[in-house]
C-alpha cells in the first residue's frame, strides 16, 4: 500500500503531525512499536505536572481549530467548566497523557504494536518494512524520541534503576538507604515521591547527589521563554556550530532546571519531616558532586563521588540507587540502509530549515526528523513547545507551501535584525 507520508513513532512529536494530517489530502499512517499508547508511564508520580502551557498541545499553536486540541478533548469529555473551575496552576501530567492517548486512539491512522524495522528507497519511493507489513511512501517522518541514559559504570538491575522506572520500583525502598543521582526535574520528582512515602513504606535514608552547584530552578520567565519560539529556532539554526554548542550549555537551565513548585514542595516536606514530624529519616542534600563509580558492598552499593569544589573523593552507601541522569536520542537501526546517503552534523543527521534530513536522493522525497536535531535546532527540539509548529512546517514542506514564519510565531525579541549601527553605517556611507 502507498502513502504520501509514513511516520515512525507515535509520541507527542509525531502525534502532532498525525493530528494535523488527519482527514487531509495527504494520505498517511504512523507506526509505534509499543503495544499501546503510553507517555512516560514510569514517572507518573503523585501530582507531577507539565512544564509548559496547555496551549502547547499537539495542534493549537499551528491550527487552533483542529479537532485534536486539548480544549477539544476537554469538551468531548464534558469537563470544560470543571477544568476551568479546578484552576490548576499547571496541567497534571496524567491528564496530558490521557489527552495524548485520546488523540492517538481516535486517529485511525495511528497504529500501535508495529515496529519499523527498515527504510529503503526504491523506484522513487521509500519502502518501509514493519514487523507486520511493507508499505511505500513519498515521505517519512521520524519521531522516535529519547531513551534513558545512565553512566557507563551504572547498572540497571538489583537495586539500581533509571528514574524512568521509579513508579514501578517505589515499593522496593521501604526501610532502605536510597541515593538519587541527578539534579534535574526527574531526580527532583523521585526525591519528592520518596519524601512523601508514609511510615512503613518510606526509606530509612535519602541522599540526593547532583553535579550542579545547587538544586537549580527552571527559568520559566517571559524573555527566556522566547527561546522556545519558532523564530528563535530559526535564528538558532542559522548560527555556526560553536555558537550553538555554547548557547545550549549556557541556557540549559531554561529547560533542564527544576520547577519552582517541585522545589518548594521538597523544601517544605524536608522542613516538615525534620522540625514538625521529627522523623528519623536521614536526609542528605549533596550538590556539586560527581558520581564516578559504583561497586558492590555488603548488603548494597558503594557510590564513589568527587566533590567538585575541592576534588575530594567521597563514598556513600546505599541499598537502592536511582539514576536520574537524563535521556539520550533513541537509536535508529531502521535507518541503516539509508544512513550512508545522509549528511551528518556532529552526532546528528544534518537537517535543513524544514527538518528534512540532507541526503543524496531526489529533492522532492524527504525523510523528516522530529526531536532528533537539538544541536541544530536548539533547546526546544526535545520539548513540547514547538511540536505543532514543527509538524506544520514539515507538512508545508511536503506540500511545497509557505516558506516564511506564519502569523503568531514571531518572538518579541529581534534575534535577527541588524542593529541601528548598521543603518547608521550605511547612512554614513551614503553621506560620503
Ligand atoms: C518524565 C518526562 C516529562 C516530560 N515533561 C515535559 C513537559 O512537561 N514539557 C515539555 O515540553 N517536555 C517534556 N518532556 C520532554 C518531551 O516533551 C517528551 O520526552 C516527549 O515525549 C518527546 O516526544 P517524542 O514524540 O519526540 O518522543 P517519545 O515520546 O519518546 O516517543 C517516541 C516513540 O517512538 C516509538 N518508537 C521508537 N522506535 C520505533 C520504531 N523503530 N518503530 C516504531 N516506533 C518506534 C517509541 O515507542 C515511542 O512511543 C518530558 C520528558 C520526560 C522524560
Which percent bin holds the helix content? Answer: 25-40%
Specify the overall morphology.
globular
The CATH top-level class label of the largest domain: Alpha Beta
> Oligomer, anyone?
single chain
Distance between the termini: 67 Å
Count of DSSP H/I helices: 15
Tell me about the largest β-sheet. Answer: 7 strands, mixed
Average pLDDT score = 94
What binds here, in terms of ligands, is: flavin-adenine dinucleotide
For the secondary structure, the number of strands is: 19
What is the CATH T-level topology of the largest domain? FAD/NAD(P)-binding domain
Give the uncertain stretches in residue-range form.
none
Write the layout of secondary structure elements.
Layout: E1 2-8, H1 12-21, E2 28-32, H2 70-76, H3 80-86, H4 93-105, E3 110-112, E4 116-122, E5 125-130, E6 134-142, E7 146-148, E8 160-162, H5 166-169, E9 177-181, H6 185-195, E10 205-209, H7 222-225, H8 230-237, H9 241-250, H10 253-256, H11 260-276, E11 282-286, E12 289-297, E13 300-307, E14 313-318, E15 320-323, E16 327-329, H12 336-339, E17 344-345, E18 348-349, E19 366-369, H13 374-377, H14 387-398, H15 420-431
Parallel strand pairs: 1-2, 1-6, 2-3, 6-19, 8-15, 9-10, 9-15, 10-11
Antiparallel strand pairs: 4-5, 5-6, 7-16, 12-13, 13-14, 17-18
Describe the structure.
This protein has helices at 12-21, 70-76, 80-86, 93-105, 166-169, 185-195, 222-225, 230-237, 241-250, 253-256, 260-276, 336-339, 374-377, 387-398, 420-431; strands spanning 2-8, 28-32, 110-112, 116-122, 125-130, 134-142, 146-148, 160-162, 177-181, 205-209, 282-286, 289-297, 300-307, 313-318, 320-323, 327-329, 344-345, 348-349, 366-369. It has 2 domains: 2-145 and 330-398, FAD/NAD(P)-binding domain (3-Layer(bba) Sandwich); 148-218 and 257-323, FAD/NAD(P)-binding domain (3-Layer(bba) Sandwich). It is α/β, with parallel strands linked by helices. Helix 1 crosses helix 14 and helix 6 (185-195) runs parallel beside helix 11. The longest helix has 17 residues, at 260-276. It binds flavin-adenine dinucleotide. Flavin-adenine dinucleotide (FAD) binds next to helix 1 and strand 2.
